[in-house]
Amino acid sequence: MVRGRRKAPAGPLPQRDGIDAVRVRLPEDPDGAPDTVGEYLVARFGGAIGGDRVAAMLEEGRFVGADGGAARGGEPYTAGRSLWFHRDFAAEEPVPFPVAVVYRDAHLVIADKPHFLATTPRGRHITETAVARLRRELGLPALQPAHRLDRLTAGLVLFVVRPEERGAYQTLFRDRLVSKEYEAVAPYDPELVLPTTVRSRIVKERGVLAAREEPGEANSESRVELVERRGGLGRYRLQPDRADASAPGPYERAGGADPPRSAVSGGGGGGGGGGLLPAPPAAGAAAEVHRSGQRGAAPLRERAAALRLAGGVTYEVLSGRA
After folding, report:
1. Distance between CA atoms of residues 322 and 315, nearest Å
2. Which pTM was predicted?
3. I need a surface site. Which of 6, 11, 127, 265 has the fewest CB within 10 A?
4. CA dihedral defined by 233, 234, 240, 244, rounded to 10 degrees?
5. Coil, strand, or helix at residue 55?
6. Per residue in 226-261, pLDDT tens?
7. CA 27, 32, 33, 36 torsion: positive or negative?
């Protein structure tokens, strides 16, 4: 008999800045067999934030039990007990662009995420993320994204209002029943024959900002076409090739990388679309660009312009921001 995963108990702490409290479950067989709650928490978190800081958080009543009461460091260790606490948030550079709501009902929020803003908390970006902002601004603490966009990509993200419905929408993305259409502004190349289909193998390494293209069986396929030209720049539309997107095969999302971005920046790949979109800027340059408010800065002109759900429902960005 296969047992389902037991649902985690509801926490007693409200969100802080749109971020949930962390739950810690005291294990049945901890290393070192601690006698007290404090001994376990210092052993668990002391390496990351220091034992003195853990002790101070206990003194401040930052760790609480299921009833909301503060846990004390000298309390006997009880296996299976759950505690909750909020991490200390480091100062973050504010991203000075709004998250615009394109559509909202009792089930969904479709938001237009700006460049530089991460979709979900990760690494140095915690409170300055799209989900944390929308939770605060809309008063929807349970809001969760059904998918994500890279931090440097602007455009549409689908958020789910009710936690029990999130899995269904994630399944739509997993089963490729949602198609995405991207736009990119990049230098115009009169020798590039468009439209074209770019097939390539894209690899995304954990912790590395940019995906890379490498030889091997293609795992990404995008159709690239020119929408308009203004002087030395072109506006390009990028979307999965629908002839293959609905069929089983190797064309899957490449480990969190954006295939459209790689299709126009990969130096040619298998379809001749290389070199359209410049590489993402270094972190320091990106911070300087968004501090100065230069929304159209050169490398940051890719956006998810449309989402199409199964059944023909389409959401599009109509603001004209690129």
Report:
1. 16
2. 0.76
3. 6
4. -120
5. helix
6. 999 988 888 888 886 543 333 333 333 333 445 455
7. negative
